[in-house]
Amino acid sequence: MDNSIQKQQNQRIIDVALAHFQPGEFEYGRPDVAYSHKQQQGNKDIYRDERDGPDSDHKKGVDCSALVWRALKEAGFKIDETYPSVTGSNAFSTHSLFNGTHVTPYAQQHFDVLPPAAKHDHNLQPGDLLMLKMPGGSQHIVIFQNYDKHGHIHFFGSQSSTGPASVKLSGNHYWDERTEFLGALRAKPDFIKPEPQLHGTSEHHAHTRSPNVPEALRPLYQQAEAHLSQSLAHLPDHDKHQLIHHVAQITHEQGGKRYDYLFYNADKQLILGQFGEFNDIRLSLSNGAQQHTISASQNQHTVFEHPDQHQKVTPKPTI
């Protein structure tokens, strides 16, 4: 597998993290006694596994490693085969990947290890996991997001002061000078789960598996069906077909040929995907209706589908 495919696969990690951890829905969470006074103030949670704590502020708690675990899992990596959860006796944590300057055997098996010099060589890629040592000696792990126009590093992670948020590392007194950069981890190509196999493409099979789908849409429909069919098994066949058909239709209208990635996030009732590198797909299922929003470049389409009506509406700014 060439580096371009590895780069594309790792792009999923940051894309999924940003899509899943929406502003206002999460806060920093850990059960440590040291944070109990902050929890009482309402800006921290006692849970790190995306549950709301006793404060009942409708914000779910997540710490830095739980955020990374979620991003890797939802992006299709095999993290849950060894660490099925962020709680319990085999919980995923920063120590699953590194202990100080020592990278664990698990991390070495599944990630390419970049040295501390990676902070300055401008070769970090979106989705790389940055290993940090905090001023007090604790460990922190975040996801590299991008370089800005000045070459400054930006990362996304769950900090005790902010919860899930994007942070500029370069030039920041706290993150750049007081925090030690220990290196980075880049997921190896074989760490990702195999892509779903496409259905056969015979004429008979295409007609039976792609009902009422125009010939021009069938390749995209079959790709989307392969990615989503199993995770959408809870939906009636008609609704599942409508969802997949809609994804294929808009992708086709925007000139897309294949999906970079496409998955269903059951926790947030969202279908998320990407095609053509910068064309995003976002479909929300809510309130018994299926609200489909697809952002393709600068164009956005929203359709509310009910059993007896199809009504196009103007996209809401919050979507």
Overview of this structure, please?
- The chain has 319 residues and is an alpha+beta fold.
- The protein folds into two domains: 3-191, endopeptidase domain like (from Nostoc punctiforme) (endopeptidase fold (from Nostoc punctiforme)); 203-312, no CATH class.
- It contains nine helices and 17 strands.
- It has helices at 3-20, 36-40, 64-74, 79-82, 105-110, 173-178, 203-209, 218-228, 237-253, and strands at 26-28, 49-52, 60-62, 98-99, 102-103, 111-114, 129-133, 139-147, 153-159, 163-168, 180-187, 259-265, 270-275, 279-286, 289-296, 299-306, 309-312.
- A hairpin with a 3-residue loop joins strand 13 (270-275) and strand 14 (279-286).
- The chain is globular.
- The chain starts with a helix and ends in a 7-residue tail after the last strand.
- Residues 197-210 and 296-319 have low confidence and may be disordered.
Structure, briefly:
By secondary structure, the chain is an alpha+beta fold. Helices cover 27% and strands 29% of the residues.
Task: Describe the secondary structure blueprint for this structure.
Blueprint: H1 3-20, E1 26-28, H2 36-40, E2 49-52, E3 60-62, H3 64-74, H4 79-82, E4 98-99, E5 102-103, H5 105-110, E6 111-114, E7 129-133, E8 139-147, E9 153-159, E10 163-168, H6 173-178, E11 180-187, H7 203-209, H8 218-228, H9 237-253, E12 259-265, E13 270-275, E14 279-286, E15 289-296, E16 299-306, E17 309-312
Parallel strand pairs: 1-3
Antiparallel strand pairs: 2-3, 4-5, 6-11, 7-8, 7-11, 8-9, 9-10, 12-13, 13-14, 14-15, 15-16, 16-17
